[in-house]
User: Fold this.
Amino acid sequence: MIHAILDALAMAGSMAWEILWPLVLGFALSGIVQALVRRERVTALLSGDSPRALGAATALGAASSSCSYAAVALARSLFRKGASFASAMAFEIASTNLVIELGLILALLMGWQFTLAEFVGGPIMIVLVALFFRLWMRGKIVDAARAQAEKGLAGSMEGHAAMDMSVHGEEGFWKRLFSRQGLDAVAAYFVMDWASVWRDIVGGLLIAGAFAAWVPSAWLRAFFVEGNPLLAALWGPLVGPLIAMVSFVCSVGNVPLAAVLWNGGISFGGVASFIFADLIVIPVILIYRKYYGLRAALRVTSTFYLAMVLAGYAVEALFALTGLTPTSRNAAVVGASVSWNYTTWLNVVFLALAAVLLVRFFANGGADMLKMMGGGPDSSSAEQRH
Assistant:
């Protein structure tokens, strides 16, 4: 038993070492974008569900935090401030599925095809959700959801979602970035984004390590019917989101488990639908109920699930037609080890960058900001920081 636990921890540890530098890089780039995108301009662009509004929501979401809980809270905040429900949900989907750090981790652990699949399938899912909302999420149910949202009930990571630390002023990009306020804002977003997702990342690594070490690959191949390509392609996108729902892992934390599932035989489209499903894990569904009421929460969850499945099928078909579907199942989860190679040198460099940002964050009152991360959605102190 002890040996099995040590094997799982060793798997998790070596995976963590492999993805460390792209995580630091991704969060640093995300922090730069968030620091320079002004929050007040976001809501003004999301007032409808036109293609322009949905496109703006997608682009702005992709430039936001990858924390699922913060994304859900921020979407509710945008909805309360006048964004359409469809645009708020598009922002939420993009902010967890189209972010820089997710693409980097997918490319490193699984290959560039999976990154491409994520950035192809994500917009497809957003379009499907918008279409389904026009059919099933309108009228009284949206009015009831808005009335419930206006109550301002706290969910999770409310303080983090409420904080607007973007740099104001009319100076150019580089001048704002390298100003003292700009560097402080980047450091703040970097550290607080890490603080919001580290549990998910650690949880995902531990679950993936346990799967890789304990679950026989023959069981996974049988469950995903790898021997029947057509049936596997139909089954994978259906079951992928369900596995995600019960794994309780959100955002980039589910990529290591996705790698294990891919090695175990899940279809290419099944991987895509699994990764999309970070927004219907059980804790998030319960937050939807608190934010928008039971009827709206069930409608959002079922709509998201259907869109994830169809987006998975679309990815499966498009990549098969173009010949881009990967054929080898050798995602970097088994056999990884720590050695002096390019990964180690990159980890050293980016750990140094992380240390600089961490020191700057705490030198500017970061400890108090961390205490406010779980505050209420109407926290004026959070909204007025920086």
